[in-house]
Amino acid sequence: MVRYGLVIDLKRCTGCFGCVIACKAEHQTPPKVFWAKVLRSESGKYPVVNRQPLPVLCMHCKEPACKDVCPTGATKQREDGIVVVDNKLCVGCRYCVVACPYGARYFVEKWKDYFTGKDQPSSKYAEYAKKKWLAENDRGVVTKCNFCSERLEKDLKPACVEACPAEARTFGDLDDPESEASRLIKKRRGFRLKEELGTDPCVYYLPSR
Description:
The protein has 209 residues and is of the alpha+beta class. The protein has seven helices and nine strands.
């Protein structure tokens, strides 16, 4: 059985936001919707200060809190571990948005054009963006990262992994001890965010030092 996961090397990540842009280009997410984000932290004391970019996205938890609170069963977990939202079942109650400890979910009431802020496309490209978004996510529903499941079906890597210029992202099968992702986690002592919550996230980070 495959259980997909992502490993992010904080030593390699430069905070270029390439993953953010690649995700938006792939999924045509509306304004203010970021399935992939890059946070920044600062530690130390002048003159020895360390600024660290921290890429975040849906953690595709093995025990997803969002799935437990969904009243309609719209949030589902596939056999390969990827957590998805069925827009045909989602009623936009947003319980999952509140339950997610990683802030990875977005409620989109209606599609908006990036340049005008209106719900009517302002260009041919905007028409394509609207059509693609509504076909995959609809309106009045909650959306989130799906590990680019449509790309996986074509034997392609997630857009954020493929676009990273620093090769800071490794996508693979966490249940396979011989996969590159599993070997990196073991070798570099990979850690996860908010492990104490018991959600068993499938996104690991490799220490910057």
